[in-house]
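Session log. Operator J.P. requested a structure for one protein chain; no other inputs attached. Running the standard single-chain path with token output.
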Amino acid sequence: MRTLLAGLALFAAAAFAKPLEIYFIDVEGGKSTLIVSPSGQTLLIDTGYTGFSGRDVDRIATAAKLAHVGKKIDFVLITHHHADHEGGVPNLLERFQVGTFFDPGPNVDPGADQRTNKAYEAAMAKQNRKVVKPGDVIPIKGLSVKVVTANGAHIASSGAANSFCSPAPAKEDIPENARSAGVLIEMGKFRYADFGDLTADKEQDLLCPNNPLGEVTVYQSAHHGAESAKAIYALHPRVTVVDNGARKGGTPNGLQLLKASPGLEDMWQMHFSVAGGKEANTPDSMIANVDDPCEGKYLKLTAESNGGFTMFNSRNKYTKTYAPK
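Structure written below.
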């Protein structure tokens, strides 16, 4: 009887175990992704822009409400110091408490983003802030969140040889993009990679000559779906999510490169890319915002530890489930 009861208890626990939820928030060409662990702990990767009457933090708050998140976000990772990624931090702190901020260290490319970076640094003077390096772990219960790139460095190039390493892409002179903090998030067999705005040459540095990450289930395209290194093909994602804007990122060459990834089942996009046209864009059913100006619709991913997951488009309620593999 005890064995039977124990088995029933385990079955019930498995049946009612919460999934991993990932909300891809429309910040109109910027980036903000809310990750909710089965434990209830939260990680927000980037915060979109400042201003626009609080548009981006409103959309973050909407996602948080849908995910039954209260007024505290446990962790925020700022991948790099550009206005479309860190700009929304002051607005975020007006609405939410944050446990810990992570970033790859001080801005090395002030340029046009100096104003938002000064606001970020002023906010960090009153926050718990940690600088991450490759190999660090963000401690979220129920998930493995490993930093794989940061400040221009990457984890060791171990693992299987990557046959997609040639030709080497040209070095891109965008210092902050090259410093992006990228993460690999795992829950059982489900694996999700997000490299921020990592440049193509740094993608190749990470994944060549050997791929230390192995294959992933879902890949969030770097640099809003602009051109990437073919070295990312070694990740063999089943789905790629592109956080482009209508007129930012989502370049024809970038979208075509992503769509040609070996074994890719689908590509989902935040916006219809005006430059991409019908040929380069994914089908409208998998695009959260097809009009310009947009409606601020989001995409949602719900994943199980067996590797199965579901994608949901809030614009048209289109849902597609990907069985475990």
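Operator note: The first strand starts at residue 20 and ends at 24.
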